[in-house]
Recover the amino acids of this structure.
């Protein structure tokens, strides 16, 4: 048997010898080689459900779908029911032209096949498609200290930071193989040392900074390192309220997409920072001060990829990552209140709020609030806005967003929340 320079249990050795079948042999070998690349000396058990980043049946991923067929044919499933990132298509709530639909059909040619495979692999249920699987309505919410195998960047940073779970920012498919084997390599953010902070980030703004912009600033400065953030408790208070979780969700997603942050600590707010304080900082930590001028510099640095800056926006996406139930209510109220101050009854821009299917269902159960939203012309969808923008016919449109992640990975133009609200009401920038 090949020497992997890794401590292997008897069961793992037998698995590598093929005693648990060829598929498990190949899956474990892949996980071990992945760990070896990062210097892992052993594997440790997964303690929570998997969340898969790959949710789309893209035509170029045929080898992945063939591999999944092989896993299913061997009668293998994940140890626990899993969740997966959002679906790419929702024509009922996200209007598309015939040309856009034609491109989507080619782009996601394997979507039906892949969704069928996911159900056979152990998908939690038909609604388990969201990047915010940790929402209480969805149910894949890990506990503090649990070791996970996740890959979705915004979910990884939330689980590690806000919930205190432990997962590396794994690559797509690897998280599935780890879920099948039931183990992950021990390195990085699953270790105590890997969770120590190399940066002290001091927030010295006059008001609570926009979560998306603060996360962007942190991500671009620290890149993949762990930051310890001080000064936010002045605005958010100590401890973890629902509104604080929403703020940190959006901040973390921006830090993960504008950099590669997989974990941050916030003094007096996140669990490990409450327990260990500044002892989480390494001895030779670096310092980064974020004030009003720095945030303005960050926003001014964002490139605008529209060919014509004077175009009227065609679509506005809010919810990347997916919105919480409280955020849907908040946007519904802000839009309704803003319209009430004008002679208009509906938004002037095609405005789409994205959230998990289970979160949407709960909001729709509040018939009065949902009707209020419908009356304003706003749409709710479960899709991933990034998947929509991956269609070149869609990315040609002037799309606006308050999401730094969507801005980073697409041609969408970024605006602050208050600017977004003004634009969708008036219809112009």
């Amino acid at each position: 048997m090949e020497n992997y320079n890794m401590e292997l249990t008897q069961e793992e050795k037998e698995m590598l010898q093929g005693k648990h079948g060829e598929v498990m042999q190949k899956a474990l070998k892949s996980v071990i080689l992945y760990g070896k690349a990062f210097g892992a000396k052993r594997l440790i058990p997964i303690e929570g459900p998997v969340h898969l980043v790959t949710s789309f049946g893209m035509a170029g991923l045929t080898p992945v779908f063939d591999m999944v067929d092989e896993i299913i044919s061997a009668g293998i499933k994940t140890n626990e029911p899993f969740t997966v990132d959002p679906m790419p298509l929702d024509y009922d709530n996200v209007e598309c032209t015939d040309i856009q639909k034609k491109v989507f059909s080619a782009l996601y040619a394997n979507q039906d096949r892949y969704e069928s495979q996911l159900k056979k692999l152990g998908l939690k249920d038909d609604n388990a498609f969201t990047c915010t699987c940790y929402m209480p309505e969805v149910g894949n919410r890990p506990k503090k200290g649990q070791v996970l195998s996740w890959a979705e960047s915004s979910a990884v940073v939330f689980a590690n930071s806000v919930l205190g779970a432990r997962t590396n920012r794994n690559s797509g498919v690897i998280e599935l193989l780890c879920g099948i084997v039931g183990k992950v390599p021990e390195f990085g953010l699953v270790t105590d040392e890997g969770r120590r902070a190399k940066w002290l980030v001091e927030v010295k703004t006059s008001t609570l900074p926009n979560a998306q912009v603060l996360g962007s600033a942190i991500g671009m400065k620290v890149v993949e390192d762990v930051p310890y953030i001080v000064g936010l408790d002045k605005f958010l208070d100590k401890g973890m309220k629902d509104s604080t979780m929403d703020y940190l969700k959006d901040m973390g997603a921006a830090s993960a997409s504008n950099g590669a942050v997989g974990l941050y600590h916030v003094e007096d707010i996140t669990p490990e920072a409450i327990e260990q304080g500044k002892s989480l900082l390494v001895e030779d930590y670096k310092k980064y001060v974020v004030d009003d001028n720095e945030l303005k510099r960050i926003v001014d640095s964002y490139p605008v990829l529209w060919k014509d800056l004077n175009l009227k926006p065609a679509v506005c996406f809010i919810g990347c990552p997916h919105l919480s139930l409280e955020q849907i209510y908040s946007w519904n109220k802000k839009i309704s209140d803003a319209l009430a101050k004008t002679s208009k009854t509906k938004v002037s821009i095609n405005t789409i709020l994205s959230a998990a299917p289970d979160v949407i269902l709960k909001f729709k159960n509040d018939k009065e609030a949902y009707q209020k939203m419908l009356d304003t012309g706003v749409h709710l969808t479960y899709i991933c806005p990034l998947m929509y923008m991956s269609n070149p016919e869609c990315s040609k449109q002037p799309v606006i967003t308050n999401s730094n992640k969507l801005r980073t990975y697409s041609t969408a133009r970024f605006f602050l929340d208050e600017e977004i609200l003004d634009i969708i009401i008036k219809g112009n920038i």
Summary: The mean pLDDT is 96.
